[in-house]
Amino acid sequence: MVLKGMMTRPSGSHRDQLVMAAISLTNLLAPGFSNGVPYAPSEDPAETVAAANAVCEHFYRKQVAFTVAEVDRLLALARRLHELLLDLADDDLPTAVPKINALLADFPARLHLSSEPPWALHYQDHSASAVEGWQVGCGAALASWVSSGATQYISRCEAVRCDRVFFDDTRSGTRRFCSSRCQNRDKVRAYRLRQAIKDAR
Ligand SMILES: [Zn+2]
């Protein structure tokens, strides 16, 4: 196992913001479990698209907005990113890498530097649809994270019935839960388990 401190720490670059966006889109739109209960995204396409646009705007201001017409493709992308991020959280690179390459193979990249500072390498331009742009951008950013060892910072929640993913920015790399709610649920569960064992004696 390689120590996290020895790797390139994510720096808040455009590339790193794309990975954060992939994590946030996943947690918002991928079905599964969250905080102890089954999780599903909104069934209202307009609501889904508005929430996804709000999330992405947080990470990249000049984005092309998702439209209601592409909501099914947006949800499919979120499911693919979720599967992939879980593989990366499990450090299962042989499974994750073909999935990243599949994301990159669907659409052409249009690599270019921003035309003014802050200089950032962009993977797609504004001629692509939002789903296409984010798929290429997130795929390329995750590929770059794999090649620099930064995927060690991607974790999955360890609480029962939660499969949300998060970026572990703690210095020690020991964050275990997606939220304080899951952390508290786990504390209660561990306490009850200890009590049950005590009572059984
Ligand atoms: Zn959780």
From TrEMBL:
Q: Which SUPFAM superfamilies match?
A: Jann2411-like
List, for all copies, the residue spans of the domain called Zinc finger CGNR: 155-195
Q: Per UniProt, what is one Pfam family of this protein? A: zf-CGNR
Name of the protein in question: CGNR zinc finger domain-containing protein
